[in-house]
Amino acid sequence: MSPLADWQRRFIAAMHEPGIETDADLGQPAGLDVYRNNIRQGLIEALATAFPHTRTLLGPRYFAAAAGDYARAHPPADPRLMHYGHGFADFLDTLPPLEAHRYVSDVCRLERARLDVSHAAEAPALTAPQLAGHPAPEALVPAPRPATRLVACRHDVAALWRRLEAGGAALPPGEAGDRPWLAVRRDGRARLTPVAPGVRHLYGLLDGATTLGEALAIAAEAGDEAAAGEALGTLLGLGALGVPGKPSTEDIP
Amino acid sequence: MPLSLAPDAVGIGLKHQHTEALLAAPRPVDFLELHAENYMGAGGPVRETLAALAERYPLSVHGVGMSLGGAERPDPDHLARLTSLVAGLSPALVSEHLAWSRLDGDCYNDLLPVPLTEESLALVARNIDIAQQALGRRLLIENPSLYVRLEMNTLDEADFLAELVARTGCGLLLDLNNAGISAHNLGRDLDAYLAALPLEAVGEFHLAGYSLDTAVDPPLRIDDHGSPVDEALWTLYARMTRAMPAVPTLIEWDTRVPSLARWLEEVERARARRPAPARNRTRSPA
């Protein structure tokens, strides 16, 4: 290992250990505190920017403490801080004081999904008129647009989300249960919508490798044909599906 | 067609809260500087707004995450993203830092200090070479704000920067606020530092405010980019621009971001402090 690499490793170790005596060649303790504080505060602020509703629910002090712990355990792997915090909701799920408030993680996941779709690549949406005008729609192979994310919420947080979006005081969450949402950016705006489990099922089937006809048939077996058609209508209405033949894998998650 | 940058241009940082006003108003500043990493998403409204601004303003792309000052080579994925951004915008200036922020796959969102040794010099020069070859253009390297004096240093910072210029052909982004902060925090002679720099390589000035950490004795100056430029720095800026009138200036303000009107007051102060503009001189993209 080069002397510089060794020094850098010892410097980073010192960043993780406030209050301990450090090697003299790393620099003066007061100066090291500045770098340590810059790193910690910078990541707390990045998470606060990414998850404003989560911060509202937790309160600024608890949020800062949780975000600081998360930042210490999970430094970014990417210098683009817009992508930081993908594991933050899972981290919140591990905190015992939030045992009775797991819906906060649902809100956190919705905020993460909104950010992801906001920065995702553009791709045209498949529309209902396009589908209706196609000579063989059942042979199309749709796929989720890059600016689409499925979020698995475990509580009914729809009313709470609306209240937070409006800037109002937090509401208690609704009942626990399986509550899928879709986050979709369309015409430059990210929208988050609770959807039925059947919509999630069809969305999962339309993976860019399955024809629309096959996916609808599988979905109909799980429910009924009308429900599968309704689910397709929901996905088209939200703009969640990509134009057939246009791969959407250029998106960087 | 990239927009050219006047050599006495004064610009501000690009902040989302000002984009609407910057697009609507008659051009109130000469150029905009953006933090590259904030615009490296795959798409979306942020990129679309940037494209609209690029049609109206000369741009400076300022990277903060390349970690040129580390022992590791630049991350090829990140360098590819920067190259793509620069290719799409054709900015007048592209800059990075004499600092490191990445190690063993983890990123640290700060500009960490580089030991000034012959080994570091060779590695940083290698990294700048890699970046410049990928970008196909000259980088400006910014002098750092420092909070620690490293006993292992065998080179002065000005000599280190001069040697980087000589070895790689890079230019310098002379952040006068950083120079003042480091001089204060490290007990360095600011005038001697500036005199030792290869000033002919300077392609941009940065100006910013700082805060004071009085919890330590002696107090440290902190490069927080959250306050107006102080009077001593304006005086230094006037002196430097008399000697170097053809260098664009960027007023940084990244925390506690002011209203556009307040920021433009600082722009006017910069214009008032520097020599009368030279005519018929423009800086083409490097």
TrEMBL record, chain A:
Pfam families: DUF2063
Entry keywords, A to Z: DNA-binding
A single MF term (Gene Ontology): DNA binding
Keyword Aminoacyl-tRNA synthetase carried by entry: no
Segments forming a coiled coil: none
Chain ranges of the Putative DNA-binding domain: 7-92
Name of protein: DNA-binding domain-containing protein
TrEMBL record, chain B:
Organism: Halomonas koreensis
Protein name in UniProt: DUF692 domain-containing protein
InterPro entries to which the protein is assigned, alphabetical: MbnB/TglH/ChrH, Xyl_isomerase-like_sf
